[in-house]
Each structure stands twice: as structure tokens, then as C-alpha cells.
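Report of the visiting student (M.T.), summer placement. My assignment was to run the structure pipeline on a short list of targets and document each run. The first record concerns carbonic anhydrase.
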Amino acid sequence: MSNDFYKKILDNNKKWVESQLAIDVEYFKDLAKGQQPPLLWIGCSDSRVPANEIIGAKPGEVFVHRNIANMVIHSDMNMLSVLDYAVNVLKVKHVIVCGHYGCGGVKAAMGNQSIGLIDNWIRHIKDVYRLHEDYLNSFKDEDERFNKFVEINAQEQVFDLAKTSIVQGAWRNGQDLTLHGWTYGLNSGYVTDLGVNMSSNEELDEVYRLKFTN
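After the run finished, the C-alpha cells were exported:
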């Protein structure tokens, strides 16, 4: 990071604070009182996919977890801790898993090149490809297959999310909690709802049947 860039981001912070205070002098005092976000966002670490900006949300409205390729892995204690806090403490009503077209992690999982430490993470994405290999290989155009893989990966992460003990417990207790799968277009700015919206095990079974058995 160059010194000029570092100085710029510090200056930008000061300007942002001043602009917020000009609108509402109590803005930061109110934020400091606590958070009650209605939404947990599980997205990709890609710097081009900022959760709040995409959906026009204000600070305090979105609880966020990000990792490479927006994965929901049952041994990932970071993700599980975020999910547990969001569901059981903050009582969020929606969880969105948002993938994005052009995702480098998904692209890497389509090949066999070793990248380094990240290979261990990419293996989980490769498992998704293997699960849908015949369907994905039916797309002869590589870009089309890549886009479809991004969508399927996001869908599968929603299904894995639904199977966590945290979500299962919330549904069992009658908690108002709905899961969603999205993709985001870097070249358009628009999100696409992938049609994997569910708020119970019954809906999970139905959505899974419609998506992958027809």
C-alpha cells in the first residue's frame, strides 16, 4: 500500500464522519447503542462485492460474513460462530448466501492448477462440481459453464446452511428465519434470486427436489 493511498483512506474517513454528522449529529451515538440487523449476508471476500452498497443498506442493517467463494463449510468455526450469533442473539430474519459471476475461487475449482494454501479451501468447491459434474459438463461453452457453476455453488451453500444445527434449531423452535441464494453480476450491478428461498425443512425438501431432480 503506497503512502499516498494510505493517507487518502485516512482523509476519506474524516470526510465520511463529517458528512454523516452534517446529516445527523447523533448518528454515531445512536450506532454505538447496539445493532439489530434483520439480515445476515454470507458473501465472497472479493473486494468488488460489498454487501451494504449492493443492497443500499445502512450501517447496522446487515451482519456480514465473507470468505473465498461464499462457502458454508460445517467445520468452519468462524462461519458457524457468525451464524450462531446472527440467528440466536441478533435474531436475524433473513440469511442471504450471495455468489458472484467471475468468482476467482469458483474458477480455480474448475481447473487442476495448484495455487498454494488455498488449494485446501478450493477442494470444498471442487466437491460441489463433482456433485453436479454431468450437468455442468453438458455446457460446452466454458463461460456458460462457469456462470452455471457459480449459481449451483451458491445454491448448494444454502442447502448446507439449512442443514446446520443452528438453522435446524431455529426452525424447530418456530423462529422466523428464511434462507436465500443470490448471485451478483459484476458487470451489471444487479442481483439474481436463484429461487432457493426456504424457511422450514418442508420447504428445503421441496426446493431441493425441484432444483435438482427434475
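Residues 38 and 214 are 33 Å apart (CA to CA). The mean pLDDT is 93. I thank the supervising group for their guidance throughout the placement.
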